[in-house]
Amino acid sequence: MRLKFDKFLPVFWIGIFAVAFLIIIGRFLVIQVTGEVSGVDIKALADEKRTNEYSIPAQRGSILDRNGMPLAQEHTVYRVYAVLDESYTSDPLTPKHVTDAGKTAAKLAPVLGMEESEISAILSKGMENNKFQVEFGKNGKELTQQEKEEIESLKLPGIYFEEEAIRFYPNGMFASHTLGLTDKKEGVIAGISGVESYYNDILTGVDGHISYQRDKFNVKLLDPKEVVQEPENGDNVVLTLDQKIQTLLEDSLTEVVEQYNPSRISAVVMNAKTGEILAMGNRPSYNPNNLSSVENWYNDVISTPFEPGSTMKIFTLAAAIEEGVWNPNDTFQSGSYKAGENIQKINDHNWGRGWGTISYLEGIQRSSNVAAAKLAYEKIGPAKFLEYLQAFDFDTETGIDLSGEVAGVIQYNYAIEQITTSFGQGTTTTPMQLMKAATAVANNGKMLKPYIIKEITDSDTGKVLQEGQTEVVGEPISSETAKETLRVLETVITSEKGTGYNKYKLDGYSLAGKTGTAQIPNSETGGYMTGRENYVFSFLGMAPADDPELIMYVSVKQPELEDTEPDSAPVSFIFNNVMENSLRYLNIETDEEKTPSIPIVQVPEWQGRTTQDVVASFQKLGIPTEVIGDGENVASINVEQGTEITSHQKVLILTDAPKMPDLTGWALRDVLSLQDLIGFEVNWSGEGYVVTQDLKQGAAISSADVVTVELSSE
After folding, report:
1. Based on the domain organization, do 624 and 641 belong to the same domain?
2. Strand 336-337, strand 447-448: pairing
3. What pLDDT was estimated at residue 293?
4. Does 708 map to a domain?
5. Which pLDDT score, from 0 to 100, does residue 3 have?
6. pLDDT digits (tens, 9 = 90+) for 464-474
7. b/e for 307-337, b at 16 or more Cβ within 10 A?
8. Which domain CATH number covers 620?
């Protein structure tokens, strides 16, 4: 049996080898025919192994001002690193790794701004730990082209550079909260705040790539089958901001910070006709190129609601005019106001002293809390006043195209809140909400949505892809109400009784506006903070007053004031400087250059006509009149018939039964005009406006009388 088995053993092994051979040959044939091994396409695998493929980064779009000046752009910088592994060197005569740590450190240190010992330690430690390469921390990153070339000129073996992109802001601390910030996520720049975040998808491009085949020595083949997919760069975002107006604002804010050291400042400039934001800034701010010290990350103009104070009276006034309950000559007792037995008393801002019995016009001029409260609570009514607050959108975000907007809250649950809201206390709002509401006053009743994007353009061709549009989002008041509101607000600046008198001045331009002094809630004790400087001082102004082109808001919180300085000093410095220079820069006509917009009318004939007929004729022409006496016929008028006058000029109509009018609030020039008309003698003392008269209202008066009046500017 043994012999028989040994005889067939060679045949057995030959059979085994034959089967194995057939299997292998069969496998090769299958691979040759199918081109696959274990489901893997070997041709594709081979192509992959001998193909180099690189990503071509897309460039992030730039952010520009309205005139094309770059405000944020992608910037190429370099990261330096050192190769330590000797295997990287193929020719000892031309080393490609660091050969001398000490020499390398000595030459790199001055360029990188590092100590020689620090660089030497990094290199030596890397060598000891057999690291292929090392970097040099913060100092070795974001090198400029000049620094790169300086290091290259040292011809140090083993020193190489990696090109990378960063976001660069050419103007440093400039509209920083508006532009926003970026961060790198997996090597891609992405916006995290401001315009950078809101328009991140538009600014971000699509990376391209390049691929080609090469040999084992990494040399491109003669037929490399090269494929190039060009990157799609991000689009550019063009803002409505004007670099020159923004610079005016930034410089003014910085100067106020240096002089008054406030805890917060916010300011914004808007085109009254379009809703475009021309400048916007806050303090504290930051330099987006260097974030080593940042006190405030928030864009307070849109993100930080606060109790606005008396600037809210603009809208209380407008609501009263629209409702037909505004009579500037109606009077009230100023000082304090208690609307009901269980309602807390509110005081005027001069610690409740007030100014006696004054007109509502004077109340607005003096920024009387009592005037605003009585207008809202008694004349308009709480329910109707709330409708106006909502019509002015004080309960919603403005919708501006920026990230991080927060709306204020209308506090209106209790009677005291309904009262204090009228003068800007309790209820909160943002500066941007105030600006949006003010567009209705400046723009004939039409309220505009604020916006900051002028257009989106293709970064390669410059083609405009999308444009910002002026959008009317409400009409809370009529055109007539808006004009009357502007006329009243102009007297806040021009009247000697106004809180803006001699504080807010524009050379060559009229101005309508409202001051604000808002209390600051005390989070520790409840109530409000005390002390002269513990307020938010503000101003909202529109110019030119008759037909505003620009609206500007400024608020300064807790400035450090000298005893002799008015609390408005920091706010007025910013407002006057920026507003006046912006109007001139935009070539807006001064009042002197304008064709008079106030209608010119001709004084009608009055001789031989009844008082009633003459008054009706003047009213039809829109001319305000003051009737002297109660006679049926007109005896004389202080302007000649046929004379051309403006429709705002006051006309005195003397009847044939003259009686002494109430001169309270009259300017001296009006009293003297009455003197010329009747012929009596006038004695006066003081300056400003009439506060007392010795001849009582309603008494008969003739040329034989002597009238004594006292004037005061208080």
Report:
1. yes
2. unpaired
3. 79
4. yes
5. 52
6. 999 999 999 99
7. bbbbbbbbbbbbbbbbbebbebeebbebbbb
8. 3.30.10.20
Of 405, 347, 354, which Cα lies nearest the Cα of 373? 347
Amino acid 623: pLDDT: 78
Pairing of strands 40-41, 133-135: unpaired
pTM given for the model: 0.74
Inside any domain, residue 203: yes
- 579 within some domain: no
Q: Which two tokens stand for residue 492?
A: 């806040």
Nearest 5°: phi and psi at 653? -110, 110
Q: By residue range, what is the domain housing residue 231?
A: 54-238
Q: How far apart are CA 604 and CA 708, in angstroms?
A: 33
- Least confident range of 216-230, 396-410, 528-542: 216-230
Q: How confident is the model at residue 549 (pLDDT cuts 50, 70, 90)?
A: very high
What is the rounded (10 degree) CA torsion for 433, 434, 439, 445?
A: 100
Q: End-to-end CA distance of the chain, in Å?
A: 140
Angle subtended by helix axes 116-128 and 101-112, to nearest 10: 140
**pLDDT band of 186, cuts 50, 70, 90:** confident
Tokens of 9: 């053993």
Is 158 within the bounds of a domain? yes
Q: Are residues 383 and 496 in the same domain?
A: yes
Whether residue 151 is predicted with pLDDT greater than 80 in this model: the reply is yes
Residues 23 and 99 in one domain: no
CA distance 321 to 279: 31
pLDDT at 430 over 60: yes
> What does the alpha-carbon distance between residue 568 and residue 61 come to, in Å, rounded to a whole number?
42
Provide the token pair at 667. Answer: 């300017």
Answer with the one of 238, 271, 302 that is the final residue of a domain.
238
CATH assignment of the domain containing 453: 3.40.710.10
Considering the domain architecture, whether residues 524 and 544 belong to the same structural domain is answered as yes
Based on the structure, what is the number of domains in the chain? 4
**Catalytic residue annotation:** 310
Statement to judge: residues 441 and 520 lie in one domain:
yes
- Domain boundary residue, one of 184, 205, 238: 238
Tell me what pLDDT residue 37 has.
52
| pLDDT tens per residue across span 89-122 | 888 888 999 999 899 999 999 999 999 999 999 9
